Amino acid sequence: MSSIITSLSYYFSFPFVRYALIVGVLVALCSALFGVILVLRRFSFIGDGLSHAAFGALAVSTVLGVSNELYVVLPVTAVLAVILLRAGQKRKVRGDAALAMVSVGALAIGYLLLNVFPASANVSGDVCSTLFGATSILTLTPLDVTVCAVLSALVILLFVLFYNRIFAVTFDENFAEGTGVRTELLNTVIAVVTAVIIVLAMKFVGSLLISALIVFPALSAMRVYRSFRSVVVCAAIVSVGCAALGIVASVLCSTPVGPSIVIVNILCFAVFSVLKPV
């Protein structure tokens, strides 16, 4: 036990490890809050589709030589978030069909661009790091941490301020609209916020594993709680705890950060599945 504490003290003396923990906790918290909404509204597919779209946008920004890829990735992902959300609400346009088109198309375009216009000699390594978050979380700068903290604070503030309206829209959109809630605008806000979370999580767990942060904490909380507020609080605690444990396990075992966090989330879901509902 003492050797583990000594190792953790040594590793956390490095700034990049502390940066990874801060960003990881913030992204996990935001993902859990809006993950509950997406799961309850059966829009979980949006997280998966947007993560692939973000990869394609990141590839475009890399090819164009944009110094800060956030200027390209965030607007593109936000626009696609609104499109996917509306596609999921319309019966004429199947949400799963829109997801398949965006996912496959963005991945194909992104990988093709990175191969035709390589930004480095190790294209396969760059793609693997982007998709699975192998090392990118450990290359965060103070500016990255600051941007993540500001955006996370805005996401949490929006959730708190619009909590009652989000609750109403989540369970009965027609009733919420009848009581004066501007559901179209609120849905757009939710879609844009989801896009922000996806972009923030790209350096955390990678494009292919982002949906795990959105889905697993919400599903784990729903195994033991029934009220919306309890599920939200539990999901936030579970998500933050799994992120912290995943980062610690990654540091101690020298494993990729993203997959380590996802494995911890899977184990947590298995534990919650055997618990009786409160």
Molecular structure report:
The chain is mainly α. The chain has helices spanning 2-11, 15-40, 45-64, 70-89, 95-116, 123-132, 142-161, 163-171, 173-178, 183-205, 210-224, 228-253, 257-273. Helix 2 (15-40) packs antiparallel against helix 10 (183-205) and helix 11 (210-224) crosses helix 12. Helix content is 81%, strand content 0%. The chain is built from 13 helices and no strands.
Sum up the structure in keywords:
278 residues; mainly alpha; 13 helices; globular
Quote the average pLDDT. 78
Distance N terminus to C terminus? 34 Å
How many helices?
A: 13
Instruction: State the helicity in percent bands.
Output: over 70%
Alpha-carbon Rg, integer = 19 Å
Largest sheet: none
Count every beta strand, where a strand is a DSSP E run of 2 or more residues: 0
Gross morphology is globular
The computed structural class is mainly alpha
Strand content: under 5%
**String of helices and strands:** HHHHHHHHHHHHH
pLDDT < 50 stretches: none
Question: Which SSEs are present, and which pair or pack?
Answer:
Elements: H1 2-11, H2 15-40, H3 45-64, H4 70-89, H5 95-116, H6 123-132, H7 142-161, H8 163-171, H9 173-178, H10 183-205, H11 210-224, H12 228-253, H13 257-273
Brief account:
The protein has about 280 residues and is mainly alpha-helical.
